[in-house]
């Protein structure tokens, strides 16, 4: 199985390349300048060159706060781009998996969101990602949208890496304690994507298509997530800091984060047979990897 993955350097794309090799698949990562979501001709050329069996639409504009002032760019990448990719996949009778986000919800519910809950994004980023979902469903007849949240990995900018970097500079760090979500490892997401990809290629049943939530099991606040990071880091002799919980209004941002980002992954377990590990397990795996690599480098 050859998987064409949009987004060369993103967390999910990078992890997909690693996990595909483990499973005996081939993941081809494409990105700018030769693959540009705002240029349909480059998308067609990538399909011609790589002749994939399935497409994973993982590339995205993810600067949540900056998007408030860059609406046109956010929609171009997150809505128009996936439309081009989905249309190209449809023209070649290929399935497409599109990666989306918890930001399509307003975060006001007191329980975990299910796929049929109303989407009411309150940020430009969330609105543009919801537009991407709509575009894929409009331009493809063989698609799955996978919503995930609070992604972390060894690569790029994410909460885990940010906390560890801050702990090297500060002994005390203030972290929001009134926002809830599902911390989710990108390697676990990659395994889930590959499982869905195999199902879409080998099984034509309609119920395998549509929107699914896919996050690690268990939930936490950002504050609890930070405490877990530092506990594991300290155990390995790495940087750690005291975590001070604060309310969201004490840390204002241009884009309002959902108070509740929890997603219910029951449907993807029932339909695709996929259950991601507990977020603590995914975090433990990440920290073990990072410190084993560091020890090897130092040695």
Provide a descriptive summary of the structure in words.
This protein has 299 residues and is of the alpha/beta class. The protein has a single domain (2-298), classed as 3-Layer(aba) Sandwich (Rossmann fold), CATH 3.40.50. It has helices spanning 11-23, 40-50, 71-91, 124-139, 159-167, 186-202, 222-235, 266-272, 279-298; strands spanning 2-6, 26-30, 54-57, 96-101, 143-148, 151-152, 172-176, 180-181, 184-185, 210-213, 220-221, 242-246. The protein has a six-stranded parallel sheet, sandwiched between helices. Strands 6-9 form a two-stranded parallel ribbon. Helix 4 (124-139) links the parallel strand 4 (96-101) and strand 5 (143-148). Helix 2 packs parallel to helix 3 (71-91) and helix 3 (71-91) packs parallel to helix 4 (124-139). It is globular and about 55 Å long. The N and C termini lie far apart (38 Å). The model is unreliable at 295-299 (pLDDT under 50).
Low-confidence stretches: 295-299
- Number of distinct beta strands: 12
Rg on CA atoms, Å: 19 Å
Element order: H for helix, E for strand? EHEHEHEHEEHEEEHEEHEHH
CATH homologous superfamily label: NAD(P)-binding Rossmann-like Domain
Helix content: 40-55%
- CATH architecture name: 3-Layer(aba) Sandwich
Give, in spatial order, the strands making up the sheet with the most strands: 2-1-3-4-5-10
What is the CATH C level class, in words?
Alpha Beta
Tell me what portion of residues adopts beta-strand conformation: 15-25%
Q: Figure out the total of helices.
A: 9
| Total discrete domains | 1
* Overall pLDDT confidence: 95
Shape: globular
What is the SS-derived class?
Answer: alpha/beta
Q: Looking at CATH, which topology would you report?
A: Rossmann fold
What is the CA–CA distance across the termini?
38 Å
